[in-house]
Amino acid sequence: MENKDMTLNEMSQIVDKYIGQFEEGYFSPLALLASLSEEVGELAKEINHFYGEKPKRKGEDENTVGMELADCLFILLCFANALDIDLNQAFIKMMDKFNIRDKDRWTKKE
Ligand SMILES: [Mg+2]
């Protein structure tokens, strides 16, 4: 796949086109939740490997934190597509929450 900056909507469309090739389509919400939990677990394993106390066993796959974050993003995009949620809109609302409700929560840089 070409290496270029993409919008969230473009990523959603790529995921939808990919999933659309298969008869099975998107997983159910519960299976998506389980998949997301699996990927978060894999992310935790990489974090523990790179920043924590738990080295990998010999012969264990060498993934990267970036790849595991991308796996999580893929499942999140599947989730939003499957449930017909506009993730772009949700992201805007979520950032408004941080910028309005939590505006004095953290120490601003001078
Ligand atoms: Mg993974």
TrEMBL record:
PANTHER family: NUCLEOTIDE PYROPHOSPHOHYDROLASE
Name this protein carries in UniProt: NTP pyrophosphatase (Non-canonical NTP hydrolase)
Residue intervals of the NTP pyrophosphohydrolase MazG-like domain: 27-106
Source organism superkingdom: Bacteria
Record's keyword annotation contains Hydrolase: yes
Pfam families: MazG
Gene3D superfamilies attached to this UniProt entry: MazG-like
Species this chain originates from: Serpentinicella alkaliphila
CDD domains in the cross-refs: NTP-PPase_BsYpjD
SUPFAM superfamilies per record: all-alpha NTP pyrophosphatases
GO MF entries: hydrolase activity
Keywords recorded for this protein, A-Z: Hydrolase
